[in-house]
Amino acid sequence: MSLITFPASLETGQPADTLRWAAEQFGVDGLVVTASFEDAVLVHVAATAVPGIEIVLLDTQYLFAETKWLVDELTRTLDLNLRIVHPLPSVQPDNLWQTDMEGCCAIRKVEPLNRSLEAKRAWVTGVRRADGPTRANAPVASYDIGRNIVKLNPLAAYTDDDMALYAQLHELPANPLTERGYPSIGCWPCTRPVAPGEDKRGGRWAGSAKTECGLHG
Ligand code: SF4
Questions:
Q1: For residue 127, how far is the Cα from the chain centroid?
Q2: Which of 102, 33, 91, 21 lies closest to 60 in space, CA to CA?
Q3: Cα of 190 to ligand 1 centre, how many Å?
Q4: How many angstroms separate the CA atoms of 112 and 187, rounded?
Q5: What is the distance of C-alpha 97 from the center of its chain?
Q6: Ligand 1 center to 106 CA (angstroms)
Q7: List of E strands, 37-187
Q8: Nearest in space to 85 (alpha carbons), one of 121, 122, 53, 60
């Protein structure tokens, strides 16, 4: 794919505008959204702006039951075009997270993600600058050279208040873990609640130097 020029309006527009622009550029079938179902905002924006857009859930074998509940709830109420992508058949629950988190994420997140992006032209994510220091400069639109795909972060500029307001306006269900102190939600072995004032992603891979799973850097 050749590099494209992104309109400056993507940085200042609404998240739904980014999705609609992407659908015009790449076609609905050329888009894929990866959603952690930490909250409902990204899938609501995507599914209402571009009905039928593919939403991918990477099932790492270690998702919280609460996250699975939200997946079922949103799939039903928003009529999501949901695709659950599993690790390769050779990957079975193995406790690798206890000894090799990089290796565990590589086979349960990175490889399934790369498979999910095959034949797609743009990848839509829920990355926000407010997620924490490692994402503070995330653009709305960029080109992932390593994966050879356009990467769109339509919620990049959304603050926590913006997310809460959007969820309230659209009466979206929340992941039950949120009110139990989990502002960032991944796999259960590697996610703990955070203390008031602590970095939102401080509960991810706590006690290790790891800050990202390899999907976003
Ligand atoms: S977040 Fe933890 S359990 Fe999930 S894939 Fe990565 S290391 Fe494994």
A1: 6
A2: 91
A3: 6
A4: 15
A5: 20
A6: 9
A7: 54-58, 81-85, 122-124, 141-144, 149-152
A8: 60
User: Which tens digit of pLDDT belongs to each residue from 18-32?
Assistant: 999 999 999 999 999
- Ligand 1 atom 4: residue of nearest CA: 187
Q: Does the Cβ of 58 fall within 6 Å of ligand 1?
A: no
Tens-place pLDDT, residues 37-71: 999 999 999 999 999 999 999 999 999 999 999 99
Backbone torsions φ then ψ of 164, nearest 5 degrees: -65, -40
pTM above 0.70, yes or no: yes
CA dist list (Å): 130 to 151, 163, 169, 190: 18, 10, 20, 21
Ligand 1 in contact with 101 (CB < 6 A)? yes
The ligand 1 atom nearest the CA atom of 189:
3
Q: How many other CB atoms sit within 10 Å of the CB of residue 56?
A: 22
Alpha helices (H) along the chain: 9-12, 15-26, 41-49, 65-77, 101-105, 111-116, 160-169
Domain annotation for the chain: domains and CATH numbers: 9-203 (3.40.50.620)
With a 6 A CB cut-off, is 125 part of the ligand 1 pocket?
no
- Cβ-based neighbour number of residue 145 at 10 Å: 9
Is the CB–ligand 1 distance for residue 127 below 6 Å? no
